Amino acid sequence: AQKVTQAQTEISVVEKEDVTLDCVYETRDTTYYLFWYKQPPSGELVFLIRRNSFDEQNEISGRYSWNFQKSTSSFNFTITASQVVDSAVYFCALRSSNYQLIWGAGTKLIIKP
Amino acid sequence: KAGVTQTPRYLIKTRGQQVTLSCSPISGHRSVSWYQQTPGQGLQFLFEYFSETQRNKGNFPGRFSGRQFSNSRSEMNVSTLELGDSALYLCASSLQVTVSGANVLTFGAGSRLTVL
Protein backbone atom coordinates (compact mmCIF):
# COMPACT_ATOMS: atom_id res chain seq x y z
CA ALA A 1 0.00 0.00 0.00
CA GLN A 2 1.10 3.51 -0.65
CA LYS A 3 0.64 6.19 1.91
CA VAL A 4 1.79 9.68 2.79
CA THR A 5 1.71 10.86 6.39
CA GLN A 6 1.96 14.45 7.49
CA ALA A 7 1.70 14.14 11.24
CA GLN A 8 1.63 17.87 11.89
CA THR A 9 -1.92 19.10 11.42
CA GLU A 10 -1.15 22.72 12.20
CA ILE A 11 1.97 24.68 13.01
CA SER A 12 2.01 28.23 14.26
CA VAL A 13 5.21 30.26 14.48
CA VAL A 14 6.19 33.88 14.73
CA GLU A 15 7.55 35.57 11.65
CA LYS A 16 11.28 35.06 11.04
CA GLU A 17 11.36 31.74 12.85
CA ASP A 18 12.48 28.65 10.97
CA VAL A 19 9.90 25.90 10.54
CA THR A 20 10.12 22.31 9.30
CA LEU A 21 7.20 20.39 7.86
CA ASP A 22 7.45 16.64 8.11
CA CYS A 23 6.46 14.08 5.49
CA VAL A 24 6.78 10.31 5.76
CA TYR A 25 5.83 8.05 2.88
CA GLU A 26 5.26 4.37 2.28
CA THR A 27 5.72 2.54 -0.99
CA ARG A 28 7.15 -0.76 -2.14
CA ASP A 29 8.16 0.65 -5.49
CA THR A 30 11.80 1.42 -6.21
CA THR A 31 10.91 4.18 -8.63
CA TYR A 32 8.70 6.94 -7.37
CA TYR A 33 8.37 10.70 -7.19
CA LEU A 34 7.73 12.94 -4.24
CA PHE A 35 6.21 16.39 -4.42
CA TRP A 36 5.46 19.34 -2.22
CA TYR A 37 2.60 21.66 -3.07
CA LYS A 38 1.38 24.76 -1.31
CA GLN A 39 -2.27 25.78 -1.07
CA PRO A 40 -2.79 29.42 -0.08
CA PRO A 41 -6.23 30.66 1.01
CA SER A 42 -7.15 31.25 -2.63
CA GLY A 43 -7.35 27.47 -3.00
CA GLU A 44 -5.03 26.97 -5.97
CA LEU A 45 -2.35 24.35 -5.33
CA VAL A 46 1.09 25.58 -6.27
CA PHE A 47 3.97 23.26 -7.10
CA LEU A 48 7.09 23.71 -4.97
CA ILE A 49 9.43 20.80 -5.62
CA ARG A 50 9.73 17.32 -7.11
CA ARG A 51 12.19 14.62 -6.13
CA ASN A 52 12.70 11.20 -7.69
CA SER A 53 13.63 8.14 -5.69
CA PHE A 54 17.12 8.01 -7.15
CA ASP A 55 18.08 11.53 -6.24
CA GLU A 56 18.75 11.99 -2.56
CA GLN A 57 20.54 15.28 -3.04
CA ASN A 58 19.01 17.84 -0.78
CA GLU A 59 18.08 21.16 -2.25
CA ILE A 60 17.99 24.75 -1.14
CA SER A 61 16.04 27.37 -3.00
CA GLY A 62 16.11 30.75 -1.36
CA ARG A 63 14.41 30.40 2.01
CA TYR A 64 13.17 26.90 1.20
CA SER A 65 15.09 23.67 1.66
CA TRP A 66 14.18 20.02 1.36
CA ASN A 67 15.66 16.98 3.09
CA PHE A 68 15.01 13.65 1.34
CA GLN A 69 16.11 10.51 3.19
CA LYS A 70 15.22 7.13 1.74
CA SER A 71 16.50 5.33 4.83
CA THR A 72 13.72 6.88 6.91
CA SER A 73 11.22 7.36 4.03
CA SER A 74 11.05 11.03 4.79
CA PHE A 75 10.89 14.13 2.63
CA ASN A 76 10.87 17.13 4.96
CA PHE A 77 10.50 20.76 4.01
CA THR A 78 12.05 23.70 5.87
CA ILE A 79 11.29 27.38 5.58
CA THR A 80 14.01 29.63 6.91
CA ALA A 81 13.15 33.06 8.26
CA SER A 82 9.42 32.53 7.72
CA GLN A 83 7.22 35.33 6.45
CA VAL A 84 3.50 35.98 6.82
CA VAL A 85 3.06 35.24 3.10
CA ASP A 86 4.22 31.68 3.75
CA SER A 87 0.96 31.02 5.59
CA ALA A 88 -0.79 28.25 3.69
CA VAL A 89 -1.55 24.56 3.76
CA TYR A 90 1.38 22.48 2.58
CA PHE A 91 0.86 19.07 1.01
CA CYS A 92 3.32 16.29 0.45
CA ALA A 93 2.44 13.80 -2.31
CA LEU A 94 3.73 10.52 -3.72
CA ARG A 95 3.39 9.22 -7.25
CA SER A 96 4.65 5.78 -8.13
CA SER A 97 3.79 2.72 -10.16
CA ASN A 98 0.06 3.23 -10.45
CA TYR A 99 0.69 6.85 -11.43
CA GLN A 100 -1.97 8.09 -9.05
CA LEU A 101 -0.96 10.97 -6.87
CA ILE A 102 -1.32 10.03 -3.20
CA TRP A 103 -1.62 13.05 -0.95
CA GLY A 104 -0.81 13.64 2.67
CA ALA A 105 -3.44 15.27 4.84
CA GLY A 106 -1.64 18.59 4.71
CA THR A 107 -0.06 20.82 7.32
CA LYS A 108 -1.60 24.20 7.96
CA LEU A 109 1.18 26.70 8.54
CA ILE A 110 0.33 29.93 10.32
CA ILE A 111 2.96 32.64 10.41
CA LYS A 112 2.14 35.35 12.93
CA PRO A 113 3.52 38.86 12.45
CA LYS B 1 0.39 32.35 -20.49
CA ALA B 2 -3.10 31.60 -19.19
CA GLY B 3 -3.34 29.17 -16.32
CA VAL B 4 -5.77 26.33 -15.75
CA THR B 5 -9.31 27.67 -15.82
CA GLN B 6 -12.15 26.00 -14.00
CA THR B 7 -15.80 26.92 -14.30
CA PRO B 8 -17.99 27.52 -12.46
CA ARG B 9 -16.08 28.60 -9.39
CA TYR B 10 -19.00 28.15 -7.05
CA LEU B 11 -22.25 26.29 -7.37
CA ILE B 12 -25.05 25.04 -5.20
CA LYS B 13 -27.10 21.98 -6.04
CA THR B 14 -29.64 19.84 -4.27
CA ARG B 15 -29.52 16.13 -3.63
CA GLY B 16 -30.39 14.03 -6.64
CA GLN B 17 -29.36 16.63 -9.18
CA GLN B 18 -26.39 16.31 -11.44
CA VAL B 19 -23.54 18.72 -12.10
CA THR B 20 -20.98 19.27 -14.82
CA LEU B 21 -17.69 21.01 -14.12
CA SER B 22 -15.37 22.30 -16.79
CA CYS B 23 -11.61 22.60 -16.98
CA SER B 24 -9.50 24.33 -19.62
CA PRO B 25 -5.85 23.32 -19.32
CA ILE B 26 -2.82 25.41 -20.06
CA SER B 27 -2.31 25.72 -23.79
CA GLY B 28 -0.21 22.81 -25.01
CA HIS B 29 -0.92 20.63 -22.00
CA ARG B 30 -2.52 17.36 -23.06
CA SER B 31 -2.96 15.71 -19.68
CA VAL B 32 -5.77 16.67 -17.34
CA SER B 33 -6.50 15.19 -13.94
CA TRP B 34 -9.22 15.81 -11.39
CA TYR B 35 -9.14 15.75 -7.61
CA GLN B 36 -11.74 16.04 -4.89
CA GLN B 37 -10.83 17.91 -1.73
CA THR B 38 -12.93 17.64 1.43
CA PRO B 39 -12.13 18.43 5.07
CA GLY B 40 -12.69 14.80 6.04
CA GLN B 41 -11.00 12.88 3.24
CA GLY B 42 -8.47 15.43 2.09
CA LEU B 43 -7.27 15.36 -1.49
CA GLN B 44 -8.33 12.34 -3.49
CA PHE B 45 -7.58 11.46 -7.08
CA LEU B 46 -10.60 11.13 -9.35
CA PHE B 47 -9.30 10.49 -12.85
CA GLU B 48 -6.70 11.42 -15.42
CA TYR B 49 -7.09 11.97 -19.15
CA PHE B 50 -4.57 12.16 -21.93
CA SER B 51 -5.45 12.66 -25.58
CA GLU B 52 -9.14 12.09 -24.91
CA THR B 53 -8.48 8.74 -23.19
CA GLN B 54 -8.93 8.01 -19.52
CA ARG B 55 -5.54 6.79 -18.35
CA ASN B 56 -6.24 6.32 -14.69
CA LYS B 57 -9.19 6.30 -12.34
CA GLY B 58 -9.44 6.67 -8.61
CA ASN B 59 -11.70 4.83 -6.23
CA PHE B 60 -14.94 6.70 -6.74
CA PRO B 61 -18.41 5.37 -7.61
CA GLY B 62 -19.70 5.35 -11.15
CA ARG B 63 -21.68 8.53 -10.48
CA PHE B 64 -18.44 10.34 -11.09
CA SER B 65 -17.45 10.47 -14.72
CA GLY B 66 -15.36 12.59 -16.98
CA ARG B 67 -14.22 13.14 -20.49
CA GLN B 68 -11.67 15.04 -22.46
CA PHE B 69 -12.19 16.77 -25.78
CA SER B 70 -9.88 17.04 -28.75
CA ASN B 71 -8.76 20.50 -27.61
CA SER B 72 -7.72 18.96 -24.26
CA ARG B 73 -10.52 20.67 -22.37
CA SER B 74 -12.10 18.37 -19.85
CA GLU B 75 -15.39 18.02 -18.06
CA MET B 76 -16.39 15.98 -15.08
CA ASN B 77 -19.91 15.03 -14.21
CA VAL B 78 -21.45 13.91 -10.97
CA SER B 79 -24.91 12.41 -11.19
CA THR B 80 -27.44 11.83 -8.43
CA LEU B 81 -25.68 14.19 -6.07
CA GLU B 82 -25.32 13.29 -2.41
CA LEU B 83 -24.57 15.55 0.52
CA GLY B 84 -21.11 13.98 0.77
CA ASP B 85 -20.25 15.21 -2.71
CA SER B 86 -19.89 18.72 -1.35
CA ALA B 87 -16.26 19.51 -1.97
CA LEU B 88 -13.70 21.56 -3.80
CA TYR B 89 -13.05 19.92 -7.16
CA LEU B 90 -9.62 20.68 -8.50
CA CYS B 91 -8.42 20.23 -12.03
CA ALA B 92 -4.77 20.05 -12.97
CA SER B 93 -2.97 19.91 -16.26
CA SER B 94 0.50 18.79 -17.24
CA LEU B 95 2.54 18.83 -20.37
CA GLN B 96 2.48 15.10 -20.87
CA VAL B 97 1.92 11.78 -19.26
CA THR B 98 5.19 10.00 -18.62
CA VAL B 99 5.55 6.40 -17.61
CA SER B 100 7.68 7.47 -14.68
CA GLY B 101 4.94 9.53 -13.12
CA ALA B 102 7.12 12.60 -12.93
CA ASN B 103 4.51 15.03 -14.16
CA VAL B 104 4.40 18.38 -12.46
CA LEU B 105 0.82 19.50 -12.17
CA THR B 106 -0.49 23.00 -12.59
CA PHE B 107 -3.77 23.43 -10.77
CA GLY B 108 -6.80 25.56 -11.32
CA ALA B 109 -8.50 27.45 -8.50
CA GLY B 110 -11.18 24.79 -8.24
CA SER B 111 -14.95 24.55 -8.37
CA ARG B 112 -16.59 24.60 -4.98
CA LEU B 113 -19.72 22.47 -5.00
CA THR B 114 -22.26 22.62 -2.21
CA VAL B 115 -24.97 20.00 -2.14
CA LEU B 116 -28.03 20.84 -0.03
Q: Can you walk through the features of this model?
A:
The complex is a heterodimer of chains A (113) and B (116). Chain A is an all-beta fold. Chain A contains no helices and 12 strands. In chain A, the strands form 3 sheets. In chain A, strands 2, 5, 6, 10, 11 and 12 form a 6-stranded mixed sheet that branches. A 4-stranded antiparallel sheet of chain A has the order 3-9-8-7, with no helix packed on it. The mean pLDDT of chain A is 92. Chain B has 116 residues and is mainly β. In chain B, 0% of the residues lie in helices and 52% in strands. Chain B is built from no helices and 11 strands. In chain B, strands 2, 4, 5, 6, 9, 10 and 11 form a 7-stranded mixed sheet that branches. In chain B, a hairpin with a 2-residue loop joins strand 5 and strand 6. Chain B starts with a strand and ends with a strand. The mean pLDDT of chain B is 92. At the A-B interface, strand 5, strand 6, strand 10 and strand 11 of A face strand 5, strand 9 and strand 10 of B.
SSE topology sketch:
The complex is a heterodimer of chains A (113) and B (116).
Chain A: E1 3-5, E2 10-14, E3 19-21, E4 24-26, E5 33-39, E6 46-52, E7 59-61, E8 64-69, E9 74-79, E10 88-95, E11 101-103, E12 107-112
Parallel strand pairs in A: 2-12
Antiparallel strand pairs in A: 1-4, 3-9, 5-6, 5-10, 7-8, 8-9, 10-11, 10-12
Chain B: E1 5-7, E2 10-13, E3 19-24, E4 31-38, E5 42-50, E6 53-57, E7 64-68, E8 74-78, E9 87-94, E10 106-107, E11 111-115
Parallel strand pairs in B: 2-11
Antiparallel strand pairs in B: 1-3, 3-8, 4-5, 4-9, 5-6, 7-8, 9-10, 9-11
